[in-house]
Amino acid sequence: MESIQYTHLIAELNIIGKKITDEYKLKLNTNDVWASGKLYNSIDYKIVNTKDGFQLVFLAEDYYINIEDGRAAGLKMPPLNVIKTWIIEKGLPRTKGLDYIIARSISKNGIKPRPYLREIEQDLDKYTSRIEKAIIADMESLITNLTNIIKWQ
User: Fold this and answer.
1) Which of 144, 141, 122, 118 is nearest to 10 (CA)?
2) Helices in 31-122 by DSSP H: which ranges?
3) What mean pLDDT comes out for the span 71-88?
4) CA angle, 42 as apex, 39 and 47 as ends, to 5°?
5) At 103, is the pLDDT very low, low, confident or very high (cuts 50, 70, 90)?
6) What are the pLDDT digits (tens) for 2-33?
7) What angle is formed at CA 45 by the lines to CA 44 and CA 50, rounded to 5 degrees?
8) For position 8, what pLDDT does the model report?
9) Distance from the CA of 55 to the CA of which of 12, 44, 106, 144 falls in 20 to 30 A?
10) What confidence tens digit (pLDDT) does each residue in 43-69 have?
């Protein structure tokens, strides 16, 4: 028996995955969310075939969630070594005590959320018809292949 090949669907998911990751990178760049480039360079996607169907999975450094969710005010200060690394990566002047001042400000004021990925996720419906068309094309290919097999038997 012929099994269905999801060539059209996988091709479409690759197009969508590329668009989503490109859009997220653009939002990070446009909004100056950039220090070392580690997060930016980690942004990718993969297509996973599960028992329930295909999933388009977003990949990024774990700390992308800190950008999405921000940080509440009134929490303890972030580690100074992390702040020092950020200062260096941002190219800020290495003023004595700057790491402490920044960490104290983060503790006191928090960091506002920048939910760029959530904004993109809210707009995913625009891809529904493209996915439906790809699935239909895959089904048509299967029917054509089965019809050809039946004709030859």
Assistant:
1) 141
2) 38-42, 64-69, 80-90, 98-109, 116-121
3) 94
4) 135
5) very high
6) 567 899 999 999 999 999 999 999 999 999 88
7) 160
8) 96
9) 144
10) 999 999 999 999 999 999 999 999 999
Residue 83 tokens read as 């702040």
The residue type of 42 is S
Nearest to 106 by CA among 81, 64, 70: 70
Q: Amino acid identity of 43?
A: I
Q: What is the mean pLDDT of residues 80-106?
A: 93
Residue 146 and residue 2 in contact, taking contact as beta carbons nearer than 8 Å: yes
Please give the single-letter amino acid code of residue 54.
Answer: F
CA 140 to chain centre: 32
CA separation for the pair 131, 16 (Å, rounded): 9
Distance in Å from the first CA to the final CA of the chain:
13
12: tokens are 């479409």
54 neighbors 6 (Cβ within 8 angstroms): yes
Helix (H/G/I), strand (E/B), else coil: 1: coil
The model carries a pTM of 0.81
